[in-house]
Amino acid sequence: GAGVSQSPSNKVTEKGKDVELRCDPISGHTALYWYRQSLGQGLEFLIYFQGNSAPDKSGLPSDRFSAERTGGSVSTLTIQRTQQEDSAVYLCASSLLKTGELEQYFGPGTRLTVT
Amino acid sequence: KQEVTQIPAALSVPEGENLVLNCSFTDSAIYNLQWFRQDPGKGLTSLLLIQSSQREQTSGRLNASLDKSSGRSTLYIAASQPGDSATYLCAVRGMTGANSKLTFGKGITLSVRP
Q1: Contacts of B29 (CB under 8 A, 6+ apart)
Q2: What is the DSSP letter of B99?
Q3: Which helix (H) or strand (E) holds B91?
């Protein structure tokens, strides 16, 4: 079946502009995660959605970052007034928390470049 | 706060060599541990997942072990091939709910020379 998909695959934007990144999780997966991979920083957690519960936003680096998950499926990560330090690969993962293994499946990522 | 360490950051070996990649974590209260492979400019490919109650998992030439009490995992690659060249990431998952996020190491970049 289809895996996690993300769009766009690449995004170049000017400093100060807003951007939206999209994630389509695997159908039926109740949990959705956003991570960021920056040069020299490794992969860091941003935000977690689980069903209808309030999201865990503890990893968001600033209030310029926000995310939504509509209808328990598609998620959008929004970065307002982008800065050069926001340049990174943004990865989305989904998981079916009802299974025993709770493996997270990752999308291909969106490479964001802020000029 | 969970911290995951992978040392060394880079490794170069000749083709055919058996090798071990190390991963350590500070908080032993984990649900599972995953090893991922990442090729340049690509996303993550899950290689092996070990539940906290398990000691090891095997897939083909790969074998991952877990010693939860000492906070260590190893990924063993047998008979390495140039196609194994990639970055290998170790990640641990917290126990429940808001802690279910993965905490990643910074990865080991492996180069297998023909």
Answers
A1: B94, B95
A2: G
A3: strand B86-93
Chain-centroid distance, C-alpha A11: 14
Mark which residues 23-62 of A lie under 8 Å from B by CB: 31, 33, 35, 42-45, 48, 50, 53, 56, 58-59
Contact A95 B103 (CB under 8 A): no
User: d(Cα B89, Cα B108) in Å, to the nearest integer?
Assistant: 7
Task: Determine the residue type at A31.
Answer: A
DSSP classification of residue B82: G
Q: Give me B16's structure tokens.
A: 């055919």
Q: Which residue of A has its CA nearest to B46?
A: A105
pLDDT tens track for B87-102 = 999 999 887 654 578 8
A67-103 burial, b at 16+ Cβ within 10 Å, e below that, comes to bebeeebebebebeebeeebbbbbbbbbbbeeeeebe
Higher-confidence residue: A102 or B12?
Answer: B12
Q: Cα(B30)–Cα(B2) distance, rounded to whole angstroms?
A: 9
* N residues, chain B: 114
CA atoms within 13 A on the CB side of A44: 13
